[in-house]
Target: Nucleotide-diphosphate-sugar epimerase
Amino acid sequence: MRILVTGATGNVGRIVVERLLEAGAAVRALCRNPSQASLPQDVEVVEGDLSRPESLRQALVGVERMHLFPFAATASEVADLAEEAGVRRVVVMSSGAVTAGRDTGVHLPVERAVEASGMEWTHVRPGEFMLNKLWLWGPSIRAERVVRDPFPDLSWHPVHERDIADVATAALLEDGHQSAAYTVNGPEFISRRDQVRAIAEAIGQDVRLEVVTPAQAREMYLAQGGFAAANAGFLTGFEKYAREQAERSQAGKTEPVASGPVPTAEKVTGRPARTFGDWVRDHAEDFA
Model:
């Protein structure tokens, strides 16, 4: 069975590749720059780009299942090409924003395009990535052992990237996941303040938490660049959803809006979902 993994060099895609190889699957990885992919030697790396659907024709030959990274602009064309090539199952790397009705047009068009095809489909909808804290706080922790944040008591259930990959891999390899949309969160409702404490404990050094205003944080994130700059408005409450979260936190309403436990990877994998402490231990060197 040959499986095509798009987004194979991403934070989740690399782990999906790793898991599929462990399961004995034949893995083909779609990459814009194959020479820079740095994937295991057993992976067949092919050149292609979701923004240019025609570049996928050769990559899809002989493929039975596909892990699909979301690219809304060409989603219908990619789905048509996959179905035409004989792909029978597609697992979409989507977002929990779809479940919450807050998708910005990035993920929902991809889900709908795949659903409209004749292929089996499964959507994996992760919530907040634990990795976000590495991209956001990593530079200041490494340089100054400090985290500057405007909403230290804002809490949610961040998810480990390996749990996301495990769900996607199960949906690719196992039967019984067809026409399912899995929202994947972490097992703990944990504040940013407690996340900073967990990072300090993992690296064995004090990390100071400095509370700043949203405006100060926004300017800091814009100057930092990368993930922080791209999400500065959302992270600091200048965009609607984040503003609502921040207002709830400031009012002391820190419990999840939805009643009952949030869904985690355990529903699919049968194993307890990884905690924030697990994730920090996995990434301690990245912070240190």
In short: The CA atoms of residues 124 and 261 lie 18 Å apart. The mean pLDDT is 93. Residues 131-144 form the longest helix (14 residues).
